[in-house]
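Q: I'm teaching a short session on how sequence maps to structure, and I want students to see two examples side by side rather than one. Could you give me a first protein with its sequence written out and its structure tokens following it? Keep the formatting plain so it prints cleanly on a handout.
A: Of course. Example one:
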Amino acid sequence: MDDEDQFLSQVLSGIAEAEVITIFFPLLRRAIIVDTRRDELVGPTVKVMPQVNSMGERIRAVEKLRPGLGKIRSILGVPWMKSVRCLDEHGVVEKLVDRLHRAGMPPAEAEAAVRDAARQLWKLERMAFVRMIKGEGFSTLWAGKS
């Protein structure tokens, strides 16, 4: 098993156990947040949120967003350096959907929530690539010969 396979194995097993999962995309400065906590009034949720500087900051942001659910007992933070589409290719989307379903969200709703979040990130990723190609927000390391 190589390093990438081991990383994916740890991510997938962590998703199955964590109460809150945050998969962050450093290049997009955004994260998918999956909060499986629930009570009688609110169920699990999936959100795309801005990236934060620390896990403590993420915990505070999620607890503030959902104050009635109390303190987070376990959180998984995953830096995702691959493309957004790779989430699906590597089984992460399926595992998130399964985790939400086990937390009480209907399967179709869980699938739609995760796919919608991935679609939002994919659009941001596409816009970032277009900006990169156009050179917007980037500077040249060295000039070509004229």
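Q: Perfect. Now a second example for contrast.
A: Example two:
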Amino acid sequence: MAVAGSLVDQRSEGDDVVNAIVGGEDAAGVERAKGLLDRFLANRGDRTLQAYRIDIEDFGRFLGVSASRAVARLLANGPRAGRHLALDYAIDLRERGRAQATVNRRLATLRSLAGIAHELDLVDWPLEVPREEEISAAIQERAGQASYLLPRHPSEVDRLDLQHYGLRAALRANYLAPVESPERVLDVGSGTGQWGFDVCQRFPNASVTGIDLVAGKPGAPPRYRSVRANVLDGGVPFSDGMFDFVHQRLMVTGVPLASWPGLVADIVRVTRPGGWVELVEPMLIFERTGQATLRLCQLAMEIAKPLGLDTTSVVFGALDSYLRDAGLETVTRSQLTVPIGHWEGEVGALMATDARAAFTRLCEVLQARSVLQVAEGRGLIEQAQEEWEQHRTCWTFAIAFGRKP
């Protein structure tokens, strides 16, 4: 067992205060991970032992920690987080030029480790590793999300739909522009597509197109189509004057601040004379809140800044100016203050669920970068939810629309 011992005993400084461990939140969890590795590597032939050692050491290097800490982190937070970490690792392997056979073997090693943990009752779930086609799709998707604050995740479908329903209920409409009987509608940054689905229902004869980096959810109405495109790389992929109404909402977390004037001008380009453009963007800080929520917002801004994203609500304040500068007339601006929390009925509950899911996703990103401890993230989110009820927290959105002459 000399080889196995040399692997699990290579401890990075700070392992005794590891934040993500199997079965606990203290140093004992790392010891349990060491025991798991000993069990996994025991009684292996020399070639198999060497291959497993290389795989596990490489996974530790990917996370920047020792092997025991890496295994603890893989298993600490449940099947969804484990699978997401395995996908991140697979993408890293591919980006480093590793052959698919190597990627498959290293993922199989992680799956086998989780299987032993399951047998030992350290976890109660098997690790599902991503398939080759999923890895390729994720690489393509992330290539188009270089500026996106929260890279797209399977749970985003549910969150974005909740957000849509909350905003629709608060506004009591899907939009404010005085649009009548449009024939062609475009939704830029369409997300799941639900806004466009609703517009199809409102205008049964209209053709509605949603463009986003990834395809929307299934179940689209017959006159809705989804187009995959990156508007920051080549612009809005349509001819001049094609649409009667162009809508864009909540793109502040994906469009660099310097790109906003050009993007709005391109949106206006594809709008027909007499057609309408509507933009909806929020303030970047919640109102009437406490220290935990402010801390979470601050962490988000620390990620956003190096991506070139807005960190001081410039976009919120400039929506109407963007439209005027792009040549629109009859520009109108209004603000909508939305409750966050169960203190204000259905809308507040929907938006609280949206906020909790977004902050959870943020914490996962920070934990993967070893910026935030798991326990700290959970504590901040729990405290933030209490603050929303105590302080009656709100979130303000700007809505600006104008007509193309």
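Q: What should students look for in example two?
A: Point them to this: DSSP finds 14 helices and seven strands in the chain. Also worth mentioning: The two ends are 78 Å apart (CA to CA).
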